[in-house]
Amino acid sequence: MSTAAATAERLPRLNRFGWLMGLYAENHARFQRLFAPAALEAGRYRSVIGDGLDVCLDVIERHRYTTELRLTYAMPDPVTGEPDPSAYLRVYHDARQLEATHCYIGRRWQDVIGLYPPPAEVIGHRMRMNTFLGKWLEYLAERGHGVATLQGPEAIPKKVIEMS
């Protein structure tokens, strides 16, 4: 048996759910470095770096073990009027994980996977959403967004709270 084959046999295989939990942990670390949400009170924050693409971070609700957020650009979709792209996020403080619970990137989740998708399709969709979130957070950091560029908080419009 070759050394590579022996090593491969000893390494545990990561299933899709384990991979998803890893994405949540990576996104939590990125988000913490970027916006330090533990210090933010409920309200709307805007990150302005002067490129015309301001980022809005809504701290919708704070709970003992979780925080509900929405991350979006300050520009609406011309067809729907909704911010696009936009991601609703849930921070799990004790587990140190950040989950994109749902995203709007031109389409709603029901349009993408249907109303009653099989479990494997749900996991796949969550993997795509959270992979997108990780790449978006990296992009925002590269552009210069972060705690130093946040302005706010302002009152969150009622429409945002009703959508969550």
How would you characterize this protein structure?
It comes from Marilutibacter maris. This is DUF1249 domain-containing protein. Pfam families: DUF1249 (PF06853). This protein is globular. Helix content is 39%, strand content 25%. The chain has one domain. The C terminus is likely disordered. Helix 2 packs parallel to helix 4. By secondary structure, it is an alpha+beta fold. Strand 1 and strand 2 form a beta hairpin. The relative contact order is 0.20. The chain has five helices and six strands. The protein has a six-stranded antiparallel sheet with strand order 5-4-3-2-1-6.
Structure described in brief:
The chain has helices spanning 3-10, 16-35, 109-113, 119-143, 158-163, and strands spanning 43-47, 55-62, 66-73, 86-92, 97-104, 150-154. With 164 residues, the chain is α+β, with helices and mostly antiparallel strands.
**Distance linking N and C termini:** 55 Å
Number of helices: 5
Shape field: globular
Biggest beta sheet summary = 6 strands, antiparallel
Count of spatially separate domains: 1
Low-confidence stretches: 160-164
Query: Looking across the biggest beta sheet, what order are the strands in?
Result: 5-4-3-2-1-6
Work out the helicity level.
25-40%
Strand content: 25-35%
Report the structural category.
alpha+beta
- Name the helix and strand elements from N-terminus to C-terminus, one letter apiece: HHEEEEEHHEH
Can you count the beta strands?
6
Rg from Cα: 18 Å
